[in-house]
Each structure stands twice: as structure tokens, then as C-alpha cells.
Amino acid sequence: MFDLETNPDNASRARCVGILLAAGRGRRYAGAAAGQDKLLALLPDGTPVLVAAVALLRAAVSHIVAITRPDNDRAAALLAQAGCDVVMADPGADGMGDSLATAVRHVMRTADHGIDACLVALGDMPWIRPDTCLRVAAASRQHAIVAPVWNGQRGHPVAFQRTIWPALAVLTGDVGARAVVARYGVTELAVDDAGVCADVDTPEDLMTAGRRVEPG
């Protein structure tokens, strides 16, 4: 087994913190599934979507800060059991921008000096390959913002160097980090991983999206 000094994967983990955004309400899924929460839905192997998203992100980071809604006790419990630092979104938060800003502010207060990037993933994207997360995290050593691209489509997770965090910390609204990416530019990393663009929007996605991202 390689140690931290000789294994570049371990070095990438040591310098990168994960941020998992899990504060959305998933209204489209809930409308088609009698109010069920898509993050708690089970994949074919019985793993909740949210837990699978945590597991793949953990391959590339030292620890994970996960943000969820204050009224979603079940999601908060699963995140805590998975070893995440759980942060509650403001009840009046208005979309992904607010959630990301809240999580980044927490990271800015708590991250060790050795952490120089964050890797932002979404709680409803359980099919990304762990090695893809590692590649994006490693690329952030040389580039301020890095995003994976599959088949011409930009996806997640997205890495942000520490110098970008203050801009993320003041985001609002439901457009995520688009304004920050537009201001600073993004390095696109080509990957052979359809999972970077596959999320859970409807109950059907639990089966069909999973089949689409299977290798081969």
C-alpha cells in the first residue's frame, strides 16, 4: 500500500475537501412519486441515492461537508452516519447558490491550512466513478476551476481552488456557481464517464439512468 508521500491519489485527498449539495426539494421527483424524497430513494442495489453520492465523493477528498434542509431529518441522519459534517441550509434559502454559499462559508471557517481546493458534488448524482472524482481533484492543483466533460456536456463534480472560495461564499439564487465560472473561466477535463451528467429527476431515472452509465 502506498503512503501519503508516494501515492498521488492520497495527496489529492489530503488537500481537497468535499462539498455535497443535498438541500433541494426534488419537486419533479416528488410529484411523480407521491411526495417521496429522491435523495432517499433506493438504487437497484438497495443503497439510498444520497449515500451512494457520498461514497463516490469520499474517494477524492479528506472529508465531506454536506448541506441539507433543516426539515429533512432522515437525510441529515444518513449524512452523519456516513461521516459527513452536516450543515443546515437557511430555511429561507433560495436555491443552489444559497446552499453552496452556506457550505463554502462553513468550509472557510473550518478547513485546515493544508486544504487548497473543494470538490463540489450533487446529492442526486450517484453514478459518477470515484476515479473521475480523483482526476478532477488532481487537476485542481494546476487550474482554478475544473469540471469534467463527457460527450461534449459539462458535468459534476467541479473543483474550485481556495482562492475562488470568497466568490462562492456570496452566491445567491438558483443558478449555482455559473456566475463564478463565467468570471474566472473553467478548465474542462474530458472523461469517459457518463455519470458526470446523470442525475435523478424522476423515479424512472433510478433504473434507466443507471443502465445508461454502465461501462460498455
UniProtKB/TrEMBL annotation:
<dbReference type="Pfam" id="PF12804">
    <property type="entry name" value="NTP_transf_3"/>
</dbReference>
<dbReference type="InterPro" id="IPR025877">
    <property type="entry name" value="MobA-like_NTP_Trfase"/>
</dbReference>
<protein>
    <recommendedName>
        <fullName>MobA-like NTP transferase domain-containing protein</fullName>
    </recommendedName>
</protein>
<keyword id="KW-0460">Magnesium</keyword>
<dbReference type="GO" id="GO:0016779">
    <property type="term" value="F:nucleotidyltransferase activity"/>
</dbReference>
<feature type="domain" description="MobA-like NTP transferase">
    <location>
        <begin position="18"/>
        <end position="184"/>
    </location>
</feature>
<dbReference type="InterPro" id="IPR029044">
    <property type="entry name" value="Nucleotide-diphossugar_trans"/>
</dbReference>
